[in-house]
Here is the input.
Amino acid sequence: MADFTIREYKNRDYDAVRRMFGEGMMEHLPATGTHLLKLFQVQFFFFISFLGVLFVSQSYLLSLVTLAILFLAGRWQLNKEFQEYVEQCKREDLLDIEKSYMANDNSCFWVAESNDRVVGMVGAQSALLSNEVMTLRRMSVARDQRGKGIAKALCRKVIDFARQRGYKTVSLETSMVQYAAQRLYENMGFRKTSVQILPTLFGKFAKFSVLTYEFKIHD
Ligand SMILES: CC(C)(COP(=O)(O)OP(=O)(O)OC[C@H]1O[C@@H](n2cnc3c(N)ncnc32)[C@H](O)[C@@H]1OP(=O)(O)O)[C@@H](O)C(=O)NCCC(=O)NCCS
Here is the structure.
């Protein structure tokens, strides 16, 4: 039997929810770094830098140290990008969760609770300018509680909520490096409807795509 329950968000969950969101996002940093290292332009930049320093200094050691410094600088910059994204989200809907999700009838936020601890979260909001599409947002499950079906239960909650309110579709966005999330949504019956490069400087440089998934409740 499941050792967790799903309930509506309460103000006392505020810190746990914001922390869990940040942790869930930051754990995609290594996969993003790996993706970057596979890009031709990144490999070319490292190669040219290595050769340039070698040519000028005639020192393999200095060239390797330069590579290490460039690698660490890249990692630092990536970390900063992720931190900024998390902070931005915390200034948007996650700043006042009560107001963003609980104040009207067409949005809601749920947490999964186990042994009096918040172990999962998800939000549902009516899409801007549409009364047919419900968006699923901020799905995250505590790392030590994964693989127990918590995300599936949270997902079902959003679908049921949308169905009860007469919405036709549940839509969500995830990224190319969120592999577990992609499997989760595909297994839940969501279909990938678009893949788009993130419209930021980082997105364009890193060829970092955002995937949109949709679940059809009815046509
Ligand atoms: C994605 C996430 C929410 C899944 O949470 P979870 O509670 O472990 O998921 P569940 O136990 O409900 O598993 C549901 C399905 O997801 C998929 N899945 C979950 N973890 C997976 C993994 N590590 N690798 C591949 N598929 C995975 C499986 O299809 C699984 O179904 P199955 O067990 O029948 O095969 C969790 O990994 C997470 O919080 N990640 C960090 C934050 C994030 O990426 N959120 C998504 C935002 S769009």
